[in-house]
Design brief:
By secondary structure, this protein is α+β, with helices and mostly antiparallel strands. The chain is 61% helix and 15% strand. The protein has one domain (3-155). It has four helices and four strands, in the order αββααββα. The mean pLDDT is 92.
Length: 161
């Protein structure tokens, strides 16, 4: 097996482990709805469950999430082939984070039919949707993926000129 696959597998495993351990810690130490203030009017640790997606969309529609995850895993299979930590670092990190995030939340959906969320931020008075480590991987992974696409477009545009 190529070195890149070991790197991706090890990183995904560590991130999924971190995700699952933090979620289990919340489940075992906090009651549902309980919270602790970390930074007043900014950051709380909250015990929350989500049977939907971001902002609670498609609440209770597990079949839709299973289908989306299945499609994502097929896409990851093709994206991972292009991963190269020497020449395509941003792309490779993005794909790795996306896989870790998808796996972390998929585990929750399969085992519990809900996702444990606990990171709760108030940003400029707005109560941002509560999230978890897997969600962070997904958001950061998508941002890096978009950045990589834009960077490639800029490079190709300069080469054309």
């Amino acid at each position: 097996m190529k070195k890149k696959y070991y790197i991706i597998l090890a990183t995904v495993a560590l991130l999924v482990l971190l995700d699952q351990l933090t979620k289990q810690y919340i489940v075992k130490t906090m009651e549902l709805g309980e919270y602790y203030t970390v930074i007043e009017n900014f950051f709380l640790i909250s015990s929350h469950r989500n049977t939907g997606g971001a902002w609670g969309i498609l609440t209770g529609q597990m079949t839709v999430f299973y289908l989306i995850t299945f499609i994502a895993f097929i896409l990851f299979y093709y994206l991972i082939k292009e991963a190269n930590f020497s020449t395509k670092k941003v792309y490779s990190i993005a794909v790795t984070l996306l896989i870790a995030g998808a796996v972390g939340n998929f585990i929750d959906r399969v085992l519990f039919q809900e996702v444990v969320d606990f990171l709760d931020f108030y940003i400029f008075g707005y109560n941002f949707p509560i999230f978890n480590v897997a969600d962070m991987c997904l958001v950061i992974g998508m941002a890096l993926f978009a950045y990589d696409i834009l960077l490639e477009d800029i490079i190709h545009a300069k080469i054309k000129d």
